[in-house]
Structures are given as structure tokens and as C-alpha cells.
Amino acid sequence: MMANLCRHLREAALQRPDELAVAVQQCRLGKVSYLELTQAELERRSDAIAHGLNAIGLKAGMKAVLMVTPGLDFFALTFALFKAGIIPVMVDPGMGVRNLSQCFEEAAPDAFIGIPKAHLARRLFGWGKHSIKQCIRVGGGRLISGAGESLAALEGRGAAMGAYPMVTLDEDALCAILFTSGSTGIPKGVEYSHTMFEAQIAALRQDYGISAGERDLSTFPLFALFGPALGMASIVPHMDASRPIKARPELLFAAIRDYGCSNLFLNPALLDKLGRAGESAGLTLPSVRRVISAGAPANLDAIARFAAMLAEDAPIINSYGATEALPIARCDTKQLLESAERTEQGGGILVGRPIAGVQLAIIAIDEAAIASSNDWTTLAPWEIGEIVVKGPMVSRAYYQRAEANNLSKVADADEVGSLWHRMGDLGYLDDQGRLWMCGRKAHRVDATAQGAFAKRYFSIPCERIFNTHPQVKRSALVGVHRHGDKIPLVCIELDKSQACGNAKQLYRELRELAEQHELTRGIDYFLIHEGFPMDVRHNAKIFREKLALWAEKQLHL
């Protein structure tokens, strides 16, 4: 079957031409305003840009890096690339220069489309110098960016050429490369097909209940691509999308109020920040029907705080997944808050039941590649193991990463051509078929005694137990080496509102807490850290690898 995500935009432009597609908030000198595109305007702009891309030699099957600030140009460009069959390469600017250089080397893009700052970085660091043939600047002048064609000129070339003859691809063909953020390992390019995008749209409609006529506060730009298919306008707040934790709450609340947003897509750190700001200001959000939170494990206190601003029947939905497979499972406010006691006792974090079309299993933890599902051991309910999934929204491959594919993809023995994906996360299923998350596989600590395996410790279950101590803001389990063995150590970030004048007393209390739970028994070492290294995007994923190196040095001082 042939497909193209842009068919939804074309249908919307024909059937609802004057309907709002995208609104982008601006804030200058303290004044808030908005730039808007209707469905018909977005269709016309993306058609003109697609014609312009072809005119400068960019054709279907070529790859183009897109480093453009979320705005009207971003959306018009993205739809234009899909229409033309040009493969957009999406990277997270917050992943760091070295990781970005590696991404461009692997993707080997034919074109680079970016704002002046992105072009300056491209020239300075030599990004894509061996493959890039065309550079397109969005805003700014040629002198500043060193780039060739401007987007305005490109769009002007195609403005009089009418409707673009949209390229259709095999539904499973590569149509986009989305790089992981690198917050849980080396960034990898995830291959997306139109099948994946369509499955994500179906999930948002069926499992999340999004319907035509809604308006979404879009803090994650790619989410807005689904707007035309869902009949939902995307309202983009004035913020740095690569650093959402820096967002100004008053601007996001203004966008929600000005457009009556019914859907919010927030990562947990931003949910927490907005909840605190809303609580301080005594705000309510009567237009909001649901909040979808994804990107990191849920913070139950933050969820309860934010829920106080919503109508009683408006859920906060915790969505589990990854760039490679999203969404996989969902869990709403009531279930999350009811699970709080089990979470604090080391039961992991409830992420809910698999959504429609997703198959999920828990298998024995194994570092080696698994060729076939016949070769793994499926675990019983309540047993912690590795989470594996399959479904139409699951990517079939990493781009140009044969070894990563070998380690993460497993042939389904029961269905020819079907693949399972190893999430790299640990968890278990309860007797109701609900999934509980217990942390990354790479973050478990397999402790040894005299060189032999002694006990396995899981990050989330252990950390949530220690987080119940009133002086602990958050904790991080790491493995360190001492006297030839690997031992568990917990780094502690203090709650600044609670005085801690005696670290030894705190450590003694934490050891006593550890002894009360089988999961944490045997953890004897603790260190206070001034502030955990966190990922830029979510500000919720702890760089445990950096903490482990720091802790190792502290132990041997």
C-alpha cells in the first residue's frame, strides 16, 4: 500500500480550508501576540516549498537535516519535505556538539536546512561536510549564516506552480530519521515509516480520545504534525523546545487561555514547573480535557499538584514509550495516584496497559543478541525482566547501525517478517496485565562478593524507597568498584527546604531504611551530591554514568 502523512493536510485544506492549523506565540517587549496559518495556508506554503526544493535539485529519497526553531516556517518545511519524499533528519540540538557531529556523519544528509545559528555551527564544526550539497537558510542573511538559498526565495520559486504532486511511498519505506536524544546512551537514528506515523495517529485518536476541533498546547514540535489528521490545531508557546524546563509558565498559561487549549503535551519536568506556578497563582485550567505526559518516569507529587488545576474528569495520562516505539502503554491520574504506595515501597512505576495494537512481553535479562523469540525465556507476572514490544508504531531499524539492530531487534517466530523491539527498560506485568517500570537495563547494579554474583539491584525501585526520606529530593543508584568487587552506592540530592547539618546521621537513617526492604537490603554506601547531571530536554533523566565516575573518585579520595 502507498502512503504519505501529508494526505491528511490535503484533505483538511479541501474540507476545512479556513480552520486554524498552527498558531505560534511571540513575546516581544513583554507583549504577547500570535502568528497563524489556516489549513489552506499551510497546504499552499508547503506545496510552494516542495516545488522550490525540487527546483534546486533536491528529490525524493534524498535526506535533509532540519534545524529550525518551531514556528510557521518549521511546519511548512516539514510538510514540504514529506510531500516531496525528501527524508527529514531530526536531531536534538541539546545533545552536544560531539553527538551532533556523529549524527550527521551517520545520516550523510544531502541538504542542511537551518536558522543562521545552526549554519554557523555547521561551518564551525564541519557538520556533514562530506555529504551536504545544498544549504537553505531560514531567516538571517547569507553573510551571517554562510548558507546559500533562503527559504523565502525557495518558496517564491514554487509559489506560482500550484498544487504539488505529492510523492507516495510504500507504507513501510523510510520517510524520516529521528535521532534519540542520547540521554540514555549514544544517539541513534530511528527509521520512521508512514505506517508508524499513521499508527501513532490512530493511537492518539482511539486510546487517548483526541477528537476533531480540539486545540493542543504543543511543547513537542513533531506532535503538531498529527494535527491535520486529528482535526486539532497546534498552539506553539514561546519557549526553547530543546530546553522546555526553561519555559516561562505565564506564557504557556496565556496560550492555553487565549486559544482554549483542550490538550497539553508536557514532559514531567515541565508538568512539575507549571503545576508549582499554577498552585502559587491559584490558577485553574477549565478548557483542558487531558494532559499527556511522556519522556521520563512520572513524578506522583507533580501529577497530584497539576491535577488540582484541572476539572475532575480531566485525566493526566502518563504515556510510556521511546523514540523507537511510541506510544506503548498508558495510565491515567487515578491509577497513578492509587499506585503511589506500591511505588514508594519499591514496586516500580505503573505505566499501565498496552494500547490497542501493541503486544508486550517480559523476558529474562540478557546482554547478548537474541535472534528469534523462540530463543528467549518469557517471565511470569510479577517477575522483573526486560520489556519487549511489537506493533505498527514500533520502528523496524536504526539507520546505519547494524550492531544496534542486532542487539535490539528480534525476529518473531510466530509471524514471518514481524520484529520485536527490546526497549532497554526493565519491568514486570502484574496479574491485571499492567506494566510496571523498574528502570533502564543499563542502570541495574549486579553486585558481587569476592568476585561472584551476589545480588541484583534495580534503579527505580531502590530510588523510590530512598526518596521517601524527608531530606531526599531525589536519589540515583550507581555501581562502583571497591576491594575488587562491584557494590551498590546511592547518590543523594538533598531537598534544600530540609536542613541537613549531619551527613553521617542522614546516611545512618538511609541504611536503616534500606534494611527495611528486601530490594534495598545490602546498600551501605551513600554520598551527597550538590546537583545531579540531568538531560537537557526532559530535566528528569539522570546521567548515572557521570555520577558513577564521580562516586568512584569520592570513595578513593
TrEMBL record:
SUPFAM superfamilies: Acetyl-CoA synthetase-like. Gene3D superfamilies: N-terminal domain of ligase-like. Residues 10-399 form the AMP-dependent synthetase/ligase domain. CDD domains: FACL_like_1. InterPro entries: AMP-binding_CS, AMP-dep_synth/lig_dom, ANL_N_sf, ATP-dep_AMP-bd_enzyme, OlefBLtnSynShew. Pfam families: AMP-binding. This is AMP-binding protein. It comes from Shewanella cyperi. The lineage of its organism: Bacteria, Pseudomonadati, Pseudomonadota, Gammaproteobacteria, Alteromonadales.
